[in-house]
Every structure is written in structure tokens, then in C-alpha cells.
Design brief:
The chain is α+β, with helices and mostly antiparallel strands. Helices cover about 35% and strands about 30% of the residues. The protein has helices at about 5-15, 25-35, 45-50, 105-120, 145, 200-210, 250-275, 295-305, 320-330, 350-365; strands at about 40-45, 55-60, 65-75, 90, 95, 125-135, 155-165, 170-175, 175-185, 215-220, 220-230, 240-250, 275-285, 290, 310-315, 330-340, 350. Strands 1, 2, 3, 6, 7, 8, 14, 15 and 16 form a nine-stranded mixed beta sheet that branches. It has a five-stranded antiparallel beta sheet with strand order 10-11-12-9-13. The two termini are about 25 Å apart.
């Protein structure tokens, strides 16, 4: 592993603008670098589904001295404001100039993967066949990963380099995530002249929300109201009000229980107050959970410890491409990449964490065996 080459790779990547749906330039840059290392690279045809200006990048590096196949994944898009990033390094910490995000989410993962491939290309270290998945539009609902053709997936391990926290953190579970939109329908009237002729949809929505169990429901389940939109003017009893929300759980059964409670609160409000309601329930993405005793988890933890890193397996309340890839047939884990304060102007990345992310990726590939 070449620390200076890795650092320069990361600095170059973050200066290539790639907001969600505009990843073509960074995909072309990554394709060139991976092909220079002997990888076979293709861009899939997912752009028609995602609306991005490019497809997902998929690269294959032939095995050397190891059988089997190991996947590595990261995403190429960044959140806003993420154009014109000017990375700066002070006391071993990389930050933006303060007017944009840094883009460590997830170009720290992309850079670590590219450095891993470069290292294998220039050394005789053994490794299985490596498959690199660099997705688009992750930040907008995991759209790129959802559009990947998973017909060749057969339960192979996949290390997704896209978690907050230092290298050594291993995310072994992430929640099922569902969303809902409830459109409450009341009856309009003049609020000052004949309010009794009206039926406030906003009041109906308020009654429904007051009956919902929200916030942290248990150690693996949450629910939240995200937006409320209703009414036309202060002197009009509102005839419509739209409420949106989400709920998450690591267990599908618990998720279903939450939906039943939310639905009951909505229907009770309408039954009590009158009016009507239309509700749409959608799955944002599925969940996944791997046991801490799983051989792949133990391999990553062991290699992290060998590198002197603090190894820790834990679950998270957020989603990533791992959620979709698990549903498509891979066995993913999400690895900490050292990114902090992501999606904010205070985002930062310690150079040593970037280096250790790449070291851990290389170590896991070298240690991989068919029994994992």
C-alpha cells in the first residue's frame, strides 16, 4: 500500500464533481484507473432506471493464488453542496474549504478500493477474484444499487466501504425502512363566517399523529413524521392535509407491527372526526442482519485487530447499498471508513483513517478463503 498515492487519489476524486445523477466524470476517471491495473471494466445500463448520466461501474480483477470471489462496493455520488470541493489538509485531517461537503462519503471508500487494486497489480500478494461495484445515486435512495443486475450473485461476501466511524467498525445489520404518505380529506368553509360547515383536514392529521407511537420505540425500531402540508389560507378551513413519515426496524415482524399501529391511529382519527384519508405505504429499502459469529465478520475483525485497529461489530439505524445488495443475493458487511460529520460543511477525514481503510481492505482480500 502506497500512502501518498492513496492520498493523492482521494484528493483527485473529491475534486471531480459528482452530485447524485451526475457521476459520469468520476465513473470515467475510475474506469481508466482500474483498467490500467488490468481490470475488466463495464458500465451497466442502469441509467435508464436511475436517471443518472452514467450507469454503475462494475470491474473484475482476476484471482491470484486464491479461489472464490469477493465483492467490494462504494458509491460515486456526493450530497450537496458538493461541487467545486477544495480539499485542505491541516494536522493530518482533510477538510473542505468550508463552503462544501468534503465528499469523503463515499470517495474515501472509492479511493481505498482503487488503492487496493493498484497494490495487487504491483505486488504478488494473493487474492480471490475481486468484483468492484461503484454505484450511482446512492444518496437519493440507493437507486444505483437497486438497478444492478444481481442474476450472477450467489451468496458471495461483499465489503461495502461506506460507514461513519473509524476503520475496524463493522456494520453487521441495518434496518428495513418503510415510508408512508397520508392524504387527509376534510371539507372547506369560511373560517370566520361558517367554520361549523367545514371539517379541518389539519385537525384530522393532528389527531392521527397524536395517536402514533413515534421516536425510538425499542433498541432496533424507530418511527418519525417528516413533513406536514395542508391548508390554503388562514380564513379557510383546510380541506386537505398531507402527512409523510417513515419507520424502521431490524426485524421485519416488528416493522409490520409498527405499520399496524400507525395505520390504526390514522383510521381512528378519521372514524372519530369524519372526513376521509388515502394512505400509500412503500418500502424504501429492505434490511439485513449478519450474526457476529459469521466467518466473514470474524475475518474482518481479526484482520482489523492485526492492524492494531479497534475492532467492533455493531448494527446501525441507517441504510446503505448493503441493504439492497443483501436483498439481491450478496452477503454484505459495511466497513467504517473514518468519515465524520458527513452531509455537512464540517465533514472531515483523518489521513491515517483513510490509510487504514485501504490496509484493511487489502488484508481482508489476502486472508479470504472459500470457507468464508
Amino acid at each position: 500500500m502506497n500512502p501518498e498515492r492513496l492520498l493523492q487519489c482521494f484528493l483527485q476524486l473529491v475534486q471531480i464533481d459528482s452530485p447524485s445523477f451526475h457521476e459520469a466524470k468520476v465513473a470515467a476517471w475510475c474506469q481508466k484507473e482500474l483498467e490500467a491495473c488490468g481490470c475488466r471494466v463495464r458500465i451497466d445500463d442502469s441509467s435508464a432506471q436511475t436517471g443518472s448520466d452514467t450507469g454503475n461501474l462494475i470491474a473484475y480483477m482476476p484471482a491470484r493464488g486464491r479461489s472464490g470471489r469477493l465483492y467490494f462496493s462504494a458509491h460515486m455520488d456526493t450530497v450537496s453542496p458538493g461541487e467545486g470541493i477544495r480539499p485542505q489538509i491541516t494536522d493530518g485531517v482533510i477538510r473542505s474549504a468550508g463552503d462544501t461537503v468534503l465528499g469523503g462519503d463515499d470517495k474515501s471508500g472509492v479511493a481505498a478500493i482503487i488503492e487496493m487494486v493498484r497494490t495487487f497489480d504491483q505486488t504478488d500478494l494473493p487474492h480471490p477474484e475481486l468484483v468492484i461495484l461503484l454505484s450511482v445515486a446512492e444518496e437519493c435512495g440507493l437507486l444505483g444499487a437497486a438497478a444492478i443486475d444481481g442474476s450472477d450473485f450467489a451468496g458471495e461476501p461483499c465489503l461495502v466501504l461506506d460507514a461513519e466511524g473509524p476503520p475496524g467498525v463493522v456494520i453487521i445489520g441495518a434496518p428495513y425502512h418503510h415510508e408512508f404518505t397520508a392524504r387527509f380529506i376534510g371539507r372547506a368553509s369560511h373560517a370566520g363566517v361558517k367554520p361549523e360547515d367545514g371539517l379541518s383536514a389539519i385537525v384530522l392529521a393532528a389527531r392521527a399523529i397524536s395517536g402514533m407511537h413515534l421516536g425510538r420505540l425499542d433498541d432496533m425500531t424507530t418511527a418519525n413524521i417528516g413533513t406536514i402540508q395542508g391548508g390554503r389560507a388562514n380564513n379557510v378551513v383546510a380541506d386537505t392535509c398531507i402527512v409523510t413519515g417513515e419507520f424502521r426496524s431490524l426485524k421485519a415482524k416488528r416493522l409490520n407491527e409498527v405499520q399496524v399501529q400507525l395505520a390504526a391511529a390514522i383510521q381512528d382519527a378519521v372514524a372519530t372526526g369524519g372526513g376521509d384519508v388515502e394512505v400509500d405505504w412503500t418500502q424504501a429499502y429492505p434490511g439485513f442482519k449478519v450474526e457476529a459469529s459469521d466467518p466473514l465478520v470474524q475475518l474482518v475483525l481479526n484482520e482489523a485487530q492485526k492492524l492494531g485497529l479497534r475492532a467492533e461489530a455493531r448494527c446501525t439505524g441507517g441504510g446503505s447499498d448493503a441493504n439492497v445488495l443483501a436483498d439481491k443475493g450478496l452477503r454484505p458487511l459495511v466497513l467504517g471508513c473514518g468519515m465524520t460529520a458527513v452531509h455537512s460543511l464540517k465533514e472531515s477525514l483523518v489521513v491515517e483513517d483513510l490509510e487504514n481503510t485501504a490496509r484493511l481492505a487489502i488484508a481482508c482480500a489476502v486472508a479470504y478463503g472459500d470457507d468464508i
